[in-house]
Amino acid sequence: TGNECAQFTNCTQCLYNNLDCGWCGSKGKCMSGNITGPGYGGVCDFKINTENNTITTENAWEFTYSHIIHQNNIDGNKLSPANVTVFLRPGKPLAVPVRLRIPIIPPIDFFFLLDASISMKPYISLIQTLMPKISDELNEVVRLAREAVNDSTPATVFFGMGSYIEKPVSPFACYPEAYILKVHTGLVNSSAVMIAALSELLSRLAINYEHPENPLEAALLAAYDNSGNYTKRINWRPGSFHIIMMCTDASAHVAGDGKTLGIFKPNNHDGIPDGDPPGSGEDYPKPEEFKKKLIDNNINPLFGVIETSGVLGFYSDLSSKLGFGSWVPITNNSDQVVQAILNGTQEVLNKAILLKQLDLLNRLESIVPPEVIGAKPNSYVNFTLNMLLSLTDTSNFGSQGVTVVRYVGFSDTVTVTSLTAIECVGCAINNPKYQRDQCDVCGGNDTICLGCDGVINSGILFDTCGVCGGSNDTCLDCHSRPVAPGTNGTDVYDLCGVCGGDNSTCLGCDNIPNSGLEFNNCPTPVCGGPPCSDLTTTVAVLASIAVVGLVFAIVAVIMLVSAGAAMMVADDELIEKEANLHDNPLYEEAKRKFDNPLYGAGGN
Fold first, then answer.
1. DSSP for residue 100
2. Poorest-confidence range of 33-47, 69-83, 105-119, 308-322?
3. Over the stretch 88-100, which tens digit does the pLDDT of each residue have?
4. Whole-angstrom Cα distance, residue 20 to residue 252?
5. Sheet holding 380-387, edge to edge
6. Tell me, what's the pLDDT at 390?
7. What is the 3-state secondary structure (H, E, C) of 247-273?
């Protein structure tokens, strides 16, 4: 409810909790609300900007919530975004979405890390015999995977080999027979070199006096490519997919076991075997630090465990705790050994896993899903980084955290910078930066409650007419409504005395308001002229009629004269035709005799 926030008496308490509380700096109160302001009808007044005397929300309402502030990508990075800045409110989780582009299978660097105890001789001999087939089969896996996405670029698998026994400290083992790591051959594209290196190892297998043994420290040195006083190096190829396959029949020593040897100095996990002889000066590694260093160095662990050793459960559990890599059982059957190596490699390759590489203030709660299996190259898969600033982590409230998540086996990362600092401002108790003015406004300048008479809180205001303390009666229009100064009010009396009129109701015939002039009653009206009498009017009418009659008579005479002339012309034309007829010599004969052949022929 809204009352839950009232229990907090200062800004820090108000904002560093998982309730929806905000700090009203202008009132010095913790109130329920959201990013827009107080809820439950609450009001947080504002601060006056003293520079331009305007009201702003600055330093009034402060509300924090977990959200993404900014993010950006990096060209070529398989993870997007590559960088994210967030704000975390205590107890309020935040989901940060991340997208991963699955790459085409890269070249593989495969390093065998073999337990050099005498009990491992049959299995090492078997690997030596099968080395050409292992190389061919694994190269075929890579070729087919790239061919499936139409990529014919060669991606050769390189192999290397090293061995380990134990810390060279009695009673576990003795120097110089025992050692942390020996690199017998760095990474090469040659089965012959690998076979020779395995022969050299088989010639010097040692008796180990106890179980467990020391594969984790050996793998740690191999990840850093540092074998102590030995000169050979692994030479991991940049851009390749790095796999260390630890083959053993014994479990592993971990941090704390060194006290049996009188070693109490913790392992610093720097890849350098401290002491003389190497490795005698520090304890065994911590599994969680072992995991981190493998991630840092793009190493994928693959545990090859002798099936009859009784330690399958140990490495199954260790693989689960690491959260990446895999394990496979190893027998003395040739086909099974090859298939186990292929299966383990493909399982590692087929998993898309994001793991925490760095989380200084422990703000990464989880990564969902923990892994994606079988995603196709050039496809995209989505992950969610769940971030949280714990309510119990009060010592880190206000601190900036950095979390780095890495794509396992590759160098691609996403970095999340988490901000938690708040700025508590406003007129709270013991906050000298802001004080209340006489109007009770935080940071105000005594103007918001100043009357027009210059007196604070007088309540006297300017009326509509612009008169301080006025009653709006000095600027009334003809409808008795106040008209604000400077406005174009039209409701006034016109010259005709009409409210809101346009002077048209009292215009004279001269278009002058109130002139009184009118047109007279004469046949031809005259504006302002004298009136005409009735007799004059009658005479004028008769005269007009006479004139009209005369005009009609003249027109009739003209028409008669024109008609007579036309008739005379017609008679003349008829006489001329008759004369022509009588001159015809057949005229008389035609009249007397109707049998005249010319008559019947239409003659005249």
1. E
2. 33-47
3. 999 999 999 999 9
4. 50
5. 79-80, 94-101, 380-387, 364-368
6. 95
7. EECCCECCCCHHHHHCCCCCCCCCCCC
Work out the average pLDDT over 132-155.
93
Residue 595 pLDDT grade (very low, low, confident, very high; cuts 50, 70, 90): low
Residue 502 has a pLDDT of: 82
Q: Which amino acid is at 46?
A: F
Distance, in Å, from the CA atom of 596 to the CA atom of 371, rounded to the nearest integer, reads 138
Residue 444 structure tokens: 């105000």
Concatenated DSSP letters of 265-331 = SPP--SS---TTTTTTTS-PPPHHHHHHHHHHTTEEEEEEEETTSS-HHHHHHHHHHHTS-EEEEE-
Structure-block tokens of residue 218: 């050996």
- Give SS3 for 82: coil
Question: Is the pLDDT at 567 greater than 80, yes or no?
Answer: no
Question: For residue 40, what are the CA distances in angstroms to 26, 33, 44, 241, 509?
Answer: 18, 8, 12, 58, 72
Cβ-contact 320, 370 below 8 angstroms: no
> Which whole-number Å values give the CA distances from 189 to 157, 296, 379, 570, 601, in the listed order?
7, 25, 30, 138, 137
* The pair of three-digit structure tokens given for residue 589, joined into one six-digit string: 């004969």
d(CA 11, CA 424): 6
Report the candidate in 364, 371, 198, 362 with the shortest Cα–Cα distance to residue 300. 371
Per-residue pLDDT tens over the stretch 359-378: 999 999 999 999 999 999 99
- SS3 of residue 527 by DSSP: strand
Structure tokens at 183: 């690199």
pLDDT of residue 253: 96
Q: What is the mean pLDDT of residues 332-350?
A: 95
Helices (H), 417-495: none
Instruction: Answer yes or no: are the C-beta atoms of 387 and 86 closer than 8 Å.
Output: yes
Give me 540's structure tokens: 């004028």
pTM flag (> 0.90):
no
SS3 599: helix
According to DSSP, residue 31 is labeled E
